[in-house]
Task: structure prediction
Amino acid sequence: MILYFMLISGLLILSIKSIIAINYKRLAYSSFNMSKTKVRTLKRIKNAYEEEFYKSQCMNDTDMFTCKHILNIRTLGMRLATWESILMFCVLAGLTACAYKTWIVYSDDGKLVSVATYVLYGIAIALVPVIVDMVFNIKKSIEILHVNLCEYFENSFRVRLETKGNGASVNMIETANRIDDGLKELMTAMQTKPDSNICAENVSSNINLNKDEEKVLSDILEEYLG
Result:
């Protein structure tokens, strides 16, 4: 029974560590082409960056933002820190079962070979996470992911957002100027022809106002005329 428990603990450790490693390996590989990525996690980080950028009109610390979201990455619904805690529990459970079985075997027959066998089982359980780390190198994958995200946000995505924001500002200025021209024309028309029926539609064609700008002029005219 204890032997089966030890075996299950070892398999759980191997499975958990492998799933985490494969997920971060996949994210690191996909982060090399962030502009065309279809990975949901990376798209969510990208959208969060855009939202934060527009909220504050800048991004003061891209490195801190990236670290925060990498720590919040979930594998099968749980963060890396949670999986590491479960992994440590499995290792401790396996080692405890191994130590207990070793003590029982030593108490029953005292054979050195039998005791050494279970000691080796315990060492194998403890080494499983280390071996998986050496094969997949999770820390390296996280480092690559962090570098790629920072590089993309700073040198590409941020520039695109700033350009987009500047374009929107220019459009707002142009709209304000056209409305201002419309107001001037309305005021001139009201001064020269005070008894005529003046409305925003009379001047919109001359200044190339769109429907929204025309409505603003109409609202101003109604408020002015009471």
